[in-house]
Specification:
mainly alpha; transmembrane helix; DUF2304; membrane; elongated; DUF2304 domain-containing protein
């Protein structure tokens, strides 16, 4: 009974992952990770004796402890990966904000040059940028 519940649960999760991927709520690189995890859990649900064999090979006395340890390693890995992705995104946002500031300054300088020293269309002076 527990195997059937685990099997159904994993299938529902995989369907949700594919639906999120189809609707573009989840990027492909993250979907691949979750699909691999789902297939791994599906294999463990279909063949629970595999967990017993793996715990014997690794020297873990209680198979459920191995399952919890694998889940902990998986969650820590996902957290580390997401922290890495967030750091990259923050760096990219900072660079883009700097580039926008430079482009605004150049635009204001061009508008001031084209209008004979006055900012065009009543905009701010070139030496004073509006706060964002």
């Amino acid at each position: 009974m527990a195997t059937l519940v685990g099997f159904i649960f994993v299938l529902v999760i995989l369907v949700i992952i594919f639906e999120m991927l189809r609707r573009r709520h989840l990027r492909e690189k993250y979907a691949v990770i979750w699909i691999i995890i789902g297939i791994g859990v599906l294999v463990l649900a279909a063949f629970p004796q595999l967990l017993f064999w793996l715990s014997g090979v690794l020297g873990v006395k209680v198979p459920s402890n191995l399952l919890f340890a694998m889940a902990l390693v998986l969650l820590v890995s996902v957290c580390l990966h997401l922290s890495f992705e967030q750091s990259q995104a923050e760096d990219e946002i900072r660079v883009l904000a700097e580039e926008v500031g430079i482009l605004r300054l150049k635009l204001l300088e061009l508008e001031a040059g084209a209008s004979g020293g006055r900012p065009a269309s009543g905009g701010p002076r070139p030496d004073v940028l509006p706060p964002d």
